[in-house]
Write a structure and sequence with these properties.
alpha+beta, Elongation Factor Tu (Ef-tu), domain 3, Threonyl-tRNA Synthetase, Chain A, domain 2, 2 domains, six-stranded antiparallel β-barrel, four-stranded antiparallel β-sheet, about 35% strand, elongated
């Protein structure tokens, strides 16, 4: 039985390269599973990582294989390779390299959305009903009765205040029983985290926001940069949307 992939991204979001071994091959999907990986497989609105796997091509020297898609099936993290590239056999050692610029942009964006979630929770105490992101751009939906441009500007001001406070962001793992005793840890309207996930990974923005989350984040709020709320929308009764973009601090 193949052991679960060691999910390096869950404890070190800043790991850009890593060594691993191929443990399974899926020729139909043109993908390989590794014994350990720093590639985030996607989830919770955060897209999966991209990058390269380097393998020894024998007489051809080292080959760089494009990782075009990453996903998780049961306990294995699978790395889909570009069409036409060779699939390394099980047991092959590889070196993985993330598309770091894209990953870091997603980390900044994900943290910005958690700050937004934190300030809305603090000010209104309402749950998140949906969300999504791409590099430097994202949105969250909230169970608010009303939405306005003024509320959006208030949220923008509050987010940037929290960024300027340079709050530390920590990763913790707690038992599911402990998490179930704290309803504030799961901020979505519906609890979509399967019961078998135990312990639960928690992202803690010190003094602002603490909630269950599997994605990658920066180390302090100051690393986010500067946030602009670009649009506020009403998507139906008690479902209001806030869209934001993330800029560099100097912008």
């Amino acid at each position: 039985m193949t052991e679960p992939t060691d999910e390096l991204y869950s404890t070190d979001a800043y790991l850009r390269t890593f060594e691993a071994t191929v443990v399974a091959v899926d020729t139909d999907a043109h993908r390989v599973a590794l014994d350990r990986s720093a590639f985030y497989p996607g989830g919770g609105g955060q897209p999966a990582d991209r990058g390269l796997l380097a393998v020894d091509g024998g007489a051809d020297g080292m080959l760089s294989l494009d990782v075009t898609k990453v996903g998780k099936t049961k306990a294995l993290v699978w790395h889909e390779l570009a069409d036409g590239t060779p699939l390394p056999d099980p047991g092959t050692p590889v070196e993985g390299t993330l598309d770091w610029e894209r990953r870091h942009q997603l980390m900044r964006t994900h943290t910005a959305l958690h700050i937004l979630c934190g300030v809305i929770w603090a000010d209104f105490g309402v749950a998140v009903t949906g969300g999504n992101m791409e590099p430097l751009k994202g949105r969250l939906d909230f169970e608010l009765d009303a939405m306005s441009a003024e509320l959006g500007q208030q949220a923008q001001r509050r987010i940037n205040e929290e960024i300027e406070r340079a709050r530390e962001i920590m990763v913790d793992f707690i038992s599911r029983a402990e998490a179930d005793d704290d309803p504030a840890l799961i901020r979505t309207k519906a609890n979509l985290i399967p019961a078998f996930i135990d312990p639960l990974r928690v992202i803690d923005i010190a003094g602002l926001d603490r909630q269950a989350d599997g994605g990658t984040h920066v180390a302090t709020t100051a690393e986010v940069g500067r946030v602009e709320v670009t649009k506020t929308e009403s998507k139906g009764k008690a479902n209001k949307r806030i869209r934001l973009v993330v800029n560099d601090a100097a912008t």
